[in-house]
Every structure is written in C-alpha cells, then in structure tokens.
C-alpha cells in the first residue's frame, strides 16, 4: 500500500473534519468526545484549528494511503506559555488500516519533526487507561508515565519523553 504522512494544508478543513469525525465515531472513549458533539462543529472550527496548529512548533499531519486520508495526528504546545514542552494529541488511524505499522510511523514522524523544528525539551502525551496499543507504542519510543488523571471521568495516564 502506498502511504505517506504529510502536513495539512490551508484549505483542507473539509478533509480534516471528515477524518476527525470518522475517528471520533470509531473511538469516542479514547478521544473523550461524542460523535454528535463533534459533528455539530462548523467547518469554521476546523479552519481555525488548521490556523492554530500552523505555528513554528505546531502542526497537524494526515496519513494518506492511496490518495485517501485514513489517519491524523497533531503536535502542539502543552501550555501556550511554555515554549519547552510539546504535546502530542488527536492521533488515530482508521480501524481498517490499523495493525500495519502506521500508528508507529505517525508517532515516529512527529518526534522527528519536533527534533528538527522545535525547541521542546520534553514532549507529553495523555493516554486513556486500557489503550494497550498506544501505551505499548509510547513505551517503545521511550516515554515514561509521570502522572494519573481523568477526563470526563475516564481515567488516563500522562506520559513524558525527555528530548
Ligand atoms: C493507537 C493507534 C493510532 C495505533 O495505530 P496502528 O496503526 O494500529 O499501530 P501499529 O500498527 O503501528 O501498531 C502499534 C503496536 O500495536 C500492536 N498491535 C497492532 N495490532 C494490534 C492488535 N490488534 N491488538 C493489540 N496490539 C496490536 C503492534 O504489534 C504494535 O506493537 P509492536 O510494534 O510491538 O508490534 C490506532 O490503534 C488507533 O487509531 N486507535 C484508536 C485511536 C487511539 O487510540 N489514538 C491514540 C490516542 S492517545
């Protein structure tokens, strides 16, 4: 299968909305949001999201296989005021394409991008408890657990990678 990871371009809010909705539909618990809630967000929300994630240390990436967008992931700051701490979020690969190494590539690609493009000294990631695949990926790339929390009463764990 011919696949690539690339940065979202301005004007691709429609594509971003489609992949995000498909991923939320498949994994509402993981993303902590209901499909119906996400579906009500106007296109403008996704246009703004693309703008928000197009700074020198933030980006949205698409996973494109045979011309179709089948996954995505974001890089940003964990806290707007903290220039040294990155945050990996909104990662997902459509079920049909899972288990083929794309998730691992989406993670590795972003870490490489961060090392090249940002001044981050560490990167954080929050994983819902029980998400074994993502947890395995995090450990494999050197992340370690730093704290526990919850979002809408769903327990999660914060992972950190020192760069
Ligand atoms: C997490 C996710 C992005 C991983 O993507 P993926 O393309 O399936 O991942 P990969 O194929 O690279 O596999 C990653 C690891 O999971 C393992 N894995 C693959 N399929 C599996 C399965 N059916 N059951 C358990 N583990 C599996 C792989 O063996 C691999 O580990 P390894 O390198 O030790 O072999 C994807 O499953 C997904 O989108 N899940 C729903 C959304 C989500 O959880 N996002 C993360 C939010 S923090």
Distance between the termini: 32 Å
Helix coverage percent of residues?
Answer: 25-40%
Spatial arrangement of strands, main beta sheet: 1-2-3-4-5-7-6
Number of domains: 1
What is the top-level CATH class?
Answer: Alpha Beta
Oligomer: single chain
Our Rg estimate from Cα atoms comes to 15 Å
The helix/strand class is: alpha+beta
CATH topology: Aminopeptidase
H/E topology pattern: EHHHHEEEHEHEE
Strand fraction equals 25-35%
Biggest sheet overview: 7 strands, mixed
Number of helices: 6
Rounded average pLDDT: 96
What does this structure look like?
This protein has one domain (3-162): Aminopeptidase (3-Layer(aba) Sandwich), CATH 3.40.630.30. 36% of the residues lie in helices and 34% in strands. It is built from six helices and seven strands, in the order βααααβββαβαββ. Strands 1-2-3-4-5-7-6 form a seven-stranded mixed sheet, sandwiched between helices. β2 and β3 (68-77) form a beta hairpin. The longest helix has 16 residues, at 102-117. The model has no long low-confidence stretch (mean pLDDT 96). The structure holds coenzyme A. Coenzyme A binds next to β4, α5 and α6. Residues 17-163 form the N-acetyltransferase domain.
């Amino acid at each position: 299968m011919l696949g690539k990871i690339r940065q979202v371009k301005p004007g691709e809010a429609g594509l971003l909305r489609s992949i995000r909705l498909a991923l939320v539909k498949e994994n509402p618990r993981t993303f902590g949001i209901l499909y119906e809630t996400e579906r009500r967000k106007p296109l403008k929300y996704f246009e703004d999201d693309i703008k928000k994630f197009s700074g020198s240390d933030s980006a949205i990436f698409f996973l494109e296989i045979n011309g179709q967008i089948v996954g995505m992931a974001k890089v940003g700051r964990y806290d707007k005021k903290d220039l040294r701490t990155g945050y990996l979020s909104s990662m997902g690969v459509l079920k049909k394409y899972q288990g083929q190494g794309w998730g691992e590539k989406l993670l590795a690609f972003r870490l490489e991008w961060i090392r090249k493009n940002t001044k981050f000294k560490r990167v954080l990631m929050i994983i819902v408890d029980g998400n074994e695949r993502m947890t395995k990926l995090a450990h494999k790339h050197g992340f370690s657990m730093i704290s526990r929390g919850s979002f809408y009463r769903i327990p999660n764990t914060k992972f950190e990678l020192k760069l």
